Amino acid sequence: MCTVGVVLGGVAPEHEVSIISALQAAAALDRERYTPVPLYIAKDGTWYTGDALLEVDTYRDLDALRDAATPVALHPGGYGTLRVVEVPPESRWERLRRPPLRRDIDVMLLGLHGGPGEDGSVQGLCEAMGVPYTGSGVLGSAVGMDKGLSKQLCQQAGIPVVDFVTLRDNDWAGREDEQLTRCLDTLGLPLIVKPARLGSSIGIARADTRAALDAAIEDALRYDDKVIVEKAVSDLREINCSVLGTPTESTASVLEEPVPSAEEDVLSFQDKYMRESDNNAGGTKTGGPEGMASLDRIIPAELDDATTASIQEMAVQIFQLFECAGVARIDFMIDRATGTVYFNEINTIPGSFSFYLWEPSGIPFDELMHRTIQAAQQRFTEARGRIRTYDVNLLSERSLSGLKGSKG
């Protein structure tokens, strides 16, 4: 039996979205293969565990949750494991009354969205601790999280992206008029403004005037010190594709077309997570926490076979270009006026793990998570098969004398 540490929460604006996605994944795990152990990261960065953390109702009162859950620290375990150890209570009596909780984790199932967790930070922690983890590695996670860098990388690979500029906080402060003029002269109107390293449509806005652009940039800079300003596609279709596999062997899902609400030109946080759903993936409306599965969408997207195949091929190309692994979702835009397909962004830990795209592709949620965990273990085994240390002690007396001699 494989013990899976289900990591959720996190210090990011998408904290609650992460909880929904990770609990969906935990519920989908085949209990004959996997034992889930919740590892909740509170908004202050403290890690907790406890069986109740696998129930969504537990998260309705976060203060009560922290009082009832067990705070833990992480320690390297044996080969390929991570040890989760209870933080000793302050009371000496409590420390003497029972031994601290200890659990060995065989693989980390990362269900974090945005910020530390999807940007390579927690992936780097797993690398340092020597434990397999799901999803993309440090490189793919970091590049995929930065919309500016990911667009530049796609440009260099010949993948179309809409015209854009990037702004940093120190470029903006005190030079607002200059930067507004630069954006307008370079791109014109209308424009889309978004934080460079955030997801779930938080902080995104459309600007049709100079004043609206000013307000949108100010709002986006509340979430990130780097902002993307890009030319809006006026007659837009959004098309998403999920990819599953490794940097060398991967496959694309069916395509979806998300449906924004009538009041919105672009998909908002409310569209994605707070609307009742009557979609092709779910079938019935529900007010419960469904994550990305609650979004109204058309599956499969109504496109001709050639366009569908082209987008799927481009999605796999991007997945492999970023050296991604596990399951990711790549979002595209189609300009109805020209038929041009543009890369928009990649989600290396997609909402709800894009299970709603894989079930119509013939892979149920439990099998999707099994393949994702298998990919994590395969990548770990392959990495550990390489030489990781060099059997020379440069601090030995002989080596030190040699180093001194070379300096002389």
3D architecture notes:
With 408 residues, the chain is α+β, with helices and mostly antiparallel strands. The chain has 3 domains: 2-133, 3-Layer(aba) Sandwich (Rossmann fold), CATH 3.40.50.20; 144-160 and 234-384, ATP-grasp fold, B domain (D-amino Acid Aminotransferase, Chain A, domain 1); 164-231, ATP-grasp fold, A domain (Dna Ligase, domain 1, 2-Layer Sandwich), CATH 3.30.1490.20. 34% of the residues lie in helices and 24% in strands. It has helices at residues 15-28, 62-68, 92-97, 121-129, 138-145, 147-156, 169-172, 176-187, 210-220, 269-273, 305-321, 355-358, 365-384, 397-407, and strands at residues 2-9, 34-41, 47-49, 70-76, 82-86, 102-105, 107-110, 164-168, 191-195, 205-207, 226-231, 236-245, 250-258, 297-298, 326-335, 341-347. Strands 6-5-4-3-2-1-7 form a 7-stranded mixed β-sheet, with helices on both faces. A hairpin with a 4-residue loop joins strand 12 and strand 13. The longest helix is centred in the last third of the chain and has 20 residues, at 365-384. It starts with a strand and ends with a helix. The model is unreliable at 268-288 (pLDDT under 50).
